[in-house]
Amino acid sequence: MDKNKLYRLGMYEKSMPASLTWKEKLETCKNTGFDWLEISIDESDEKLSRLQWDIKKRNVLKKAMIETGIPIHTMCLSGHRKYPMGDPDKKIEQKSLDIMKQAIDLAQDLGIRIIQLAGYDVYYKKGNDDTRDRFKTNLKKAVEWAAQAGVLLGFETMETAFMDTVEKSMEYVGLISSAYLQIYPDIGNLTNASLLYHVPVVDDLKKGTGHIVAAHLKETVPGKYREIPFGTGHTDFIKDITCLKDLGVRMFTGEFWYTGQEDWKNICANSAKFLRSKLDYVFEK
């Protein structure tokens, strides 16, 4: 870590072709201007299979981190979209708990500090009192496992009404009341939520004072949450980063996607430049 930096900027794994080796991904992260890589554990079988890696596969990634000098400090755990902790199907519910326990074990083994949790009770089904109660019960188990491993869990503010604001996230943070459950908000998602609820993003962020461990920096447009190029949407990066800085946040992750572009490396480098221009403006004032 550069001791002179006032903040650190992470890179979302899905910003690069999935075909790259771990060493290639980490080298790209380093060469395009980022400080660490955020590993993705999404709902695909390929990504979920990482949770069952044997020691040999884990060591391949550890070796690549050492050789490149780029760590993996955060995990985006969106696999719960397909296997949510509030699902009424007992088999799916158990799968969600297996995913959670394995993700914490992998994080502990790789030196990952923060797991970003998807704020869903259910995703592909309609939620109700039962799904919310199941979510609360299983969330408590997840936080206990995280506490044993010394790994932080942070809710992502999502694109569904269940947990699309910091205020809603804080209901569960307060309910569990553990240092190991915090908030890892997405300012792009919050920007769209602000249009729905007529609450400025910074006002919502302030409701998480003392509980925000990192933030996703993402571009959105009204009603759309993914694959919007930086600088073409309505996210107010300067205003939101200023608020996050005041709240003590120093870890930021650029969330953007590789969608087959031939110039993807340039997109990665330009995304880092765009985000650092906003971060530098705020932190060097």
UniProtKB/TrEMBL annotation:
Gene3D superfamilies: Divalent-metal-dependent TIM barrel enzymes. This is L-ribulose-5-phosphate 3-epimerase. Keywords: Isomerase. InterPro entries: L-Ru-5P_3-Epase, Sugar_Epim/Isomerase, Xyl_isomerase-like_sf, Xyl_isomerase-like_TIM-brl. It holds the Pfam family AP_endonuc_2. One of its GO terms (biological process) is L-ascorbic acid metabolic process. One of its GO terms (molecular function) is L-ribulose-5-phosphate 3-epimerase activity. The keyword Coiled coil does not apply. Residues 27-277 form the Xylose isomerase-like TIM barrel domain. The keyword Isomerase applies.
